[in-house]
Each structure stands twice: as structure tokens, then as C-alpha cells.
Design brief:
mainly beta
Length: 833
């Protein structure tokens, strides 16, 4: 569902499991009831805030689930960008396990490719992630390189250490295609805990031997390069290749303390492979050319699901088969014209097997000879009390993993692109599934806004702009939003008219996956808000809207910026429209907005609420190109406000390069950043002057402009590190409206900055995430004296806010800060919560 720029990751020497952890950060063991706010431990520092998640509950891909066969039968889940979780059975909520890793640990949010538990050591769990495997110098920058690493925890996820795979440069793709179809790729030999296998996408099968070193497994297995689709049609590496998809052992064939002789590996594009001598040699059993998941029953039967998702000219297909007594039996429940995914077998009944396909759960009690079928419908309209109000009709689709609970065979769990569900009695007809989502927060958030309308006058606690659901109005950070942002009268993408022939505009609530990339409010009229974004399913199509009631209802702009531009081959002109990007709204005149699109048009402004849009002009352009090409768009618009490189990379990446000055009494001052140059406008965005230039970091993907909300012309500019950047960047401040900037002293690096209510109206509190006075780990800080001194308000040993995308403090309540995260929802920190 999501894509992001490739990250990068740092060399670290391999360490064996038996050694002491080199990464040792405690996770949050939460002991409250679901109705109580789950909180992170308080730092020992007296100024530290209490941190917890804003209650949203899910909306991200939970791609896998494993349960330890030994008591206490710990349940772990993996997500595509939001780390791993363990379920607290006693208190019925999820415990995030990877918040102690920093933003650049895995190139942003933390995706987990696979999980494994050790049935001989119930405290032990493994996770496969991208990891900083090396550093290298490029020009004047020190950069990380990234590769796959297998991490181990010997205390149920509280502390983690790498096992040494990273130096081998094995590719992992926790956010690539087939992320929920395949697995588990990682497996511990049930008879020899020191033997570990990992089936990778593009680099074959790997084994970590009892001596602690990783080696590529040969023995006749196919070369990864020989698999169909290893390269794209354009000749590039296919990062969506399923590759080697699962590892499974026939435990009963081995002896304790020795390698299990019979084991299986799925190879998409080749078939199921078997070893009868503990992985030394392999033979192809066939079965099907697209295996994705496999499980071995207690009697030695191997159950395998097969799936091809279908793309380009390839049709979706799949099946289910059982391998018993050296022969295959087709047990596909409903034909081979669709993919099948998660598969599980009861630990005390080798003929009780369950599997999933899209929104259907199948169950057989006779080894697949016959199947019972249950179609999942867990959308909010059904009335299931556990379902958040914004879960639409797609909430039950793309089921990924399924597992019969070894602690209770009547209890069954499954995961999908929304979260985790469970039935406590699979024997019921029909079985009743409920969402199990307390403290499972993995939404991909682009921005948080806190309009300063008092809550006792109907103001929201906060609003969010997010991927997949556009965004939310959060009445309270404790309450799950009942509906997503859904603007009225968004004209449908004509290229997809065939899919919705009766629609002229998209209905409300918005029926598809879409993301808001930016949101802003009118500072002196906080009932007025605006957002821009894009349709993630029906092409890259502009999504936008304005609210006049503090985010309760939204209406699309009457029009969007449009230009006639020459095609790349210069054969003809075509109409392009503004898509995604950044929006800023005047503090005093909500009809005056500036829109810097990610794709499509150059920056535009409107003075009539979007009825008409006009090109923003640069008052200090470079000289007119000579020779002048009349079919070169850059030449034609050489005197327009330039597109910002960091804002033009992808709508999946929000770069906060546009802002309004909240204290301009005329409401006509806007700020903008592009290509190492700061721009300002004094006439509502019509014309722009160059301010400071040449002194800022180059090629940084996430600059953030933050004007001081209490003082006109006081502008702060931060630069978050790119995923591959080792070193951070200074914090810059201008006190003359962007004409000149100076570095803020005592700050070694600053990723993000925001302002909140302070002790007086003219002295707000400032919050930054970065490093002050030689700190070696990123920390959240607060200043009560406009940056002269800083106090840490987070414990970096516990919480590193992995994947920060934006920060916003509350201007109504002192000491309240919201942090938008990539794949971990929204964190809220406060004193006295």
C-alpha cells in the first residue's frame, strides 16, 4: 500500500546471540486496562514528559503473526513500516517493541520482513529488518548503507541485538509487494535453537550456524538470479520479487540438540524444495511454482498455500496443497483463479487446517478434503462494537496471516492491512471475529495540526493529515475517530470512469485509499482549515478541501491550479493539474491560500477560496534562458516561483516548505523554501522575493519552515536528516522575515521544531527533536526562553520516535506536544497527563 524513497543503513560488527546486547533499550510494558491511556515510562529527568499514542487504532499492514508454542504463548505481529508488537494477554493490548530505535535505524519507519520464535526458549524472539550496515563518504557527507539484519531478543522484545547478517548485504523488503502473502521467511530449528534460517527475496536462503556466523545455503537450491522476474522489464532489480518465501521444519524427524533432518523451503517461481539431511542438499518437490506460505503438522504433513498477485499481463492465481507420504494432493477450496495466503494447522490435530484468501477464512477438519467458508465483513456499518467508525467496506480485505492459538485451539487470529482480529470460538456457526487493536498504532502520518480554538468552545484537540485515510478530526486523543476526513464534490478521475460509471464526484465518506500531504489553518480564524493530497488507488489524482467548522465537514476547492505544459517529448501540450504537495492559508483571510504542488503545476495562489488560481511569480529570477526553447516548460516559466526539489520528489514524502506568517496583521506574508533559497511574499503569494540563500544544506528531503506564532517575521527552519545521512543539520533562525538567517547556538542538530503555549503571550515554548550541546542521541527538548537554554523532555534510551514526519505543539495548553510518525501513528507528550 505504501512506498517511500529507498533508505540507507551503518556498519556494525556482527555479534553472536550468546554475547551481551549491543543495543539494549527497554520496551514499554504497559499494565493498564484498555480504557486507561497506555503510557511510556517516565524518564528519570524531572522535566520529562509522559508519552503515549493518540488513540486511532491501526490502519496499516500487519503482515505476519507468530505465537510461541510454549507457555506463556506470546503472540507477536510484524508490520510493514511500524515495527513489531507483542500482545499482553493479561491486559488485552499490544506492546510496541521497537520505539527505542532511532529515525535512521531503518531509513525512516521500521518495517519487519519476518518474525520467528524459539519453541525451546519462550523468552526469545527474532525479527528481520533493514539496518545500518555500513558508512561511506560521498563528497562532504558521511552516509549510511542499509541491508537486511536479523535481530534477536532474549527478553520478549525489551532488548535487541543484531546477529550479524547485515555485512552480507542481503536485501529485505518489508514494505514491498507480497509482504503480507509470504512467510514466515525466518525460522528456528525446533531441535537446535542455535540454528537459524532466513529465506530472502533476492539473495537466496541463509543459515546462521551454531558458531554464530551467517552463510548462504547451496546444496542444489536454485540461484535467485534464475527466478522469473528477478529483473524488471526495464532491466532493473525487481525489489518486489517474492523470492524464497518460507522455511518450515518437520520437527518429529529430529533429535534434541541436532539439526532437524527434514525441512522445506518455498521458492516463488520454482516450487517447494525439501532437504532430508538438515539443509546440506535439496530436491525440488514441485507442488506449484508460486508457493508463499507453508506449515508442517504434527504428523509430518506439509500444507502450502500458493499465490501470484497478478500484474502487467499476468493473471492472479493460486491454490492449496498438502504433501504427505511423498506425494502432493490438491486441496484448493475454491479454484486456482485467486491467490491464497496465510495457512495454519492445529497443534493437536494434523487434519484441522485453516487458511485465508482476500476476505475469506477457510477451515477444514479433515485435512482439506472439505472446507467451511466464512466471508469477513467487519466494516463499521455492520455494527460490530470493536470496529472503529472509520473502517470502511475494505476493512476485511487482503487477509495476510492466520494462526490457531496453541494456548486455546478454539481461538484463531488473523491479520490484514487494517490490523488484527480474533475469534474466541472458531466452532461457532458463524464464528464471531472482533478487532483486537488497543495500543496497536501504525498509521502513516504526514502532519498534525492543532488549531487554537478552545476545546470548551467546540475546538478539536488536534487534526491529522495521513496516508491511506486522508486524515482525522480528533475530538480527544483518548477517543478513536469515528470518521475520516471526506471532502464533498471531489471530481472523479476520468481515467477511472469505467470503475464508477454512475459517479460524477466521489461519494462521502470517501470510498478509496487516499492521503493528505499537507494541512493548515487560519491562525486568527481557526474554524477555517485546508488540506491537499492525492488519490492512492485511482491514479495520482488531486484530493483537496476546505473546512469552515474546525474540521467537522469539508468541501473541495471549486477548482485546482491547472496549466498547459509541453509533454516530455515536446510533441504537444497537455493539461496538468496540481497534485498533493503543500498548502498554506492566510491567518486573517481564509480565502487567500498558496499551493505548492508535488506534481503538475508550478506554485499558485488564490484570493477567492479556490475559485480561481494564479501563477506565483519570482521577483528575482535568473536571467531569461538564452537560447530560449519555446517548448521547454522550465524556460517558459523561468520567472515563476520555482518548484521545490524536496517537495517534488513524491507525494508519499511530505516536505514542509511552505508556511504563512501567523502574526502578519494583513495576513499576506508567506514563506517558501526551494533549492537552497528562502523566499517570502508580502502580497498573499502573488509575487515572491529571494531572501537568504546558499547557506543551507543541499539535497535534504524534509525541510520544515516554522514561523513563530507570536511574532511577525520570526521564522525558524529545520532540516531532518535524509535516511542515509549520518550527521544532522543546524537549526536556523531569521528575525527579519527570511532576508537573513543565523544558526541557533548550542544545537548540534535539529530534525524538527514547533512552538507551543508558554508562560506568557509573547514567549512561547519551543520544542525540538535533535541534539543539544554534544548529545549523542536524538532527544526531545523544550526551551522556555526562546532557545537560550534547553531541557530534555524524553528519554532517548526508551523512545526515539522512529520515523518522525512532523511536530506540532498546542497553543492553548502549555506542555503538550504531538509527534507525527511514519508507521507508529501520533505520539502525544505532556506533563501531568
Amino acid at each position: 500500500m505504501r512506498r517511500f524513497l529507498p533508505g540507507a543503513l551503518v556498519f556494525l560488527t556482527a555479534y553472536a546471540c550468546q554475547q551481551q546486547p549491543i543495543i539494549s533499550f527497554p520496551s514499554r510494558e504497559i499494565s493498564s486496562q484498555p480504557t486507561v491511556k497506555p503510557q511510556l515510562p517516565v524518564s528519570q529527568h524531572p522535566n520529562s514528559f509522559v508519552w503515549r499514542n493518540v488513540n486511532i487504532q491501526g490502519m496499516g499492514s500487519v503482515t505476519g503473526l507468530v505465537i510461541n508454542p510454549q507457555p506463556p504463548h506470546d503472540i507477536y505481529i510484524r508490520t510493514d513500516i511500524g515495527g513489531a508488537y507483542r500482545f499482553d494477554r493479561q491486559h488485552h493490548h499490544w506492546i510496541p517493541l521497537m520505539d527505542m530505535f532511532d529515525t535512521n535505524f531503518a531509513g525512516g519507519g521500521i518495517g519487519v520482513e519476518s518474525l520467528a520464535v524459539d519453541g525451546n526458549f519462550p523468552q526469545r524472539v527474532y525479527a528481520v529488518v533493514n539496518y545500518r550496515s555500513q558508512t561511506q563518504r560521498e563528497g562532504d557527507k558521511l552516509k549510511y548503507g542499509y541491508s537486511g539484519e536479523v535481530f534477536v531478543s532474549n527478553d520478549r522484545g525489551q532488548n535487541w541485538q543484531p546477529t550479524g547478517l547485515a555485512p552480507h548485504q542481503v536485501f529485505v523488503g518489508p514494505n514491498q509487494d507480497y509482504r503480507g502473502d509470504t512467510g514466515e521467511r525466518l525460522a528456528v530449528d525446533p531441535n537446535l535453537s542455535s540454528l537459524l534460517y532466513f529465506a530472502s527475496r533476492r539473495h537466496g536462503l541463509w543459515r546462521r550456524n551454531p558458531q554464530g556466523s551467517w552463510q548462504r545455503v547451496g546444496g542444489g537450491l536454485p540461484s535467485p538470479q534464475s527466478l522469473p522476474g528477478y529483473k524488471t522489464k526495464a532491466g532493473k532489480d525487481n525489489l518486489d520479487l517474492p523470492g524464497f518465501t518460507f522455511v518450515a521444519f518437520d520437527r518429529r524427524t529430529g533429535k534434541r540438540g541436532q539439526p532437524t533432518p527434514i525441512m522445506y523451503v518455498g521458492v516463488h517461481g520454482s516450487g517447494v524444495w525439501q532437504s532430508r539431511n538438515g539443509g546440506k542438499s535439496w530436491r525440488n518437490l514441485g507442488g506449484g511454482d508460486n508457493p508463499v506460505r507453508g506449515v508442517v503438522a504434527e504428523d509430518g504433513s506439509l500444507y502450502v498455500s500458493f499465490a501470484t498477485r497478478g500484474r502487467d499481463d499476468e493473471k492472479a492465481r493460486g491454490g492449496v496443497k498438502r504433501y504427505r507420504n511423498q506425494s502432493w494432493q490438491d486441496i484448493t477450496p475454491e479454484g486456482e483463479n485467486k491467490p491464497y495466503g496465510g495457512i495454519t494447522v492445529a497443534n493437536d490435530s494434523s487434519d484441522t487446517v485453516m487458511l485465508v484468501s482476500d476476505r475469506i477464512v477457510y477451515r477444514s477438519r479433515n485435512g482439506g478434503k472439505s472446507w467451511d467458508k466464512q466471508t469477513m465483513d467487519m466494516a463499521a456499518r455492520v455494527g460490530e462494537p470493536s470496529t472503529p467508525g472509520y473502517y470502511d467496506q475494505d476493512a476485511s480485505t487482503r487477509l495476510a496471516a492466520i494462526m490457531i492459538d496453541p494456548a486455546n485451539r478454539k481461538q484463531v487470529w488473523w491479520t490484514n492491512g487494517w490490523g488484527v482480529a480474533r475469534t474466541t470460538d472458531i466452532t461457532a456457526n458463524p464464528a464471531k471475529y472482533t478487532w483486537v487493536m488497543t495500543n496497536l498504532e501504525e498509521l502513516d502520518v504526514n502532519m498534525v495540526r492543532v488549531p487554537p480554538k478552545p476545546k470548551n468552545q467546540g475546538g478539536a484537540e488536534l487534526l491529522s493529515a495521513v496516508q491511506d485515510r486522508i486524515g482525522f478530526r480528533h475530538v480527544s486523543s483518548d477517543s478513536v475517530p469515528q470518521q475520516q476526513i471526506s471532502p464533498e464534490n471531489i471530481v472523479i478521475n476520468p481515467a477511472f470512469k469505467w470503475a464508477n460509471p454512475d459517479w460524477q464526484v466521489y461519494p462521502v465518506p470517501f470510498p478509496h485509499v487516499a492521503g493528505a500531504t499537507s494541512m493548515d489553518y487560519a491562525a486568527s480564524k481557526p474554524d477555517y482549515l485546508a488540506f491537499v493530497g492525492f488519490h492512492q488507488w485511482q491514479g495520482y489524482w488531486s484530493i483537496h478541501g476546505m473546512s469552515r467548522d474546525n474540521g467537522k465537514t469539508w468541501q473541495s476547492f471549486p477548482s485546482v491550479p491547472t496549466q498547459m505544459l509541453w509533454k516530455q517529448d515536446k510533441s504537444k501540450q497537455e493539461e496538468v493539474k496540481a497534485i498533493a504537495g503543500q498548502i498554506a492559508i492566510s491567518p486573517t483571510n481564509p480565502q487567500n491560500l498558496v499551493w505548492a504542488a508535488t506534481w503538475g503545476t508550478w506554485p499558485h495562489y488564490t484570493r477567492d477560496g479556490g475559485k480561481t488560481w494564479h501563477l506565483a511569480r519570482n521577483l528575482n529570477p535568473s536571467p531569461r534562458p538564452d537560447p530560449f526553447d519555446e517548448r521547454n516548460n522550465d524556460h517558459i516559466y523561468y520567472d515563476a516561483l520555482p518548484k521545490s526539489w524536496s517537495n517534488s520528489i513524491s507525494p508519499w514524502l511530505s516536505s514542509h516548505v511552505l508556511a504563512a506568517d501567523r502574526q502578519d496583521p494583513k495576513g499576506q506574508t508567506f514563506y517558501y523554501y526551494a533549492q537552497n533559497t528562502f523566499y517570502f511574499s508580502r502580497d498573499g503569494g502573488a509575487t515572491w522575493s529571494k531572501g537568504a540563500n546558499g547557506q543551507f544544506p543541499m539535497w535534504v528531503t524534509r525541510p520544515t519552515i516554522v514561523p513563530n506564532p507570536t511574532r511577525q517575521g520570526d521564522v525558524w527552519l529545520s532540516f531532518a536528516r535524509n535516511p542515509e545521512d549520518v550527521k544532522g543539520y543546524p537549526l536556523y533562525r531569521s528575525q527579519d522575515g527570511g532576508k537573513s538567517f543565523t544558526k541557533v547556538p548550542n544545537i548540534h542538530s535539529c530534525e524538527f521544531i514547533t512552538f507551543g503555549k508558554g508562560k506568557s503571550a509573547n514567549t512561547p515554548y519551543i520544542y525540538i527533536f535533535g541534539r543539544v550541546k554534544g548529545a549523542t542521541r536524538d532527544t526531545m527538548y523544550k526551551s522556555e526562553d526562546m532557545g537560550k537554554t534547553w531541557k530534555p523532555i524524553s528519554n532517548p534510551q526508551i523512545l526515539q520516535f522512529p520515523g518522525i514526519t512532523h511536530m506540532e505543539a498546542d497553543l492553548r495548553i502549555p506542555n503538550r506536544l504531538y509527534v507525527a510518525l511514519r508507521g507508529r501513528g501520533i505520539m502525544v507528550g505532556s506533563q501531568g497527563m
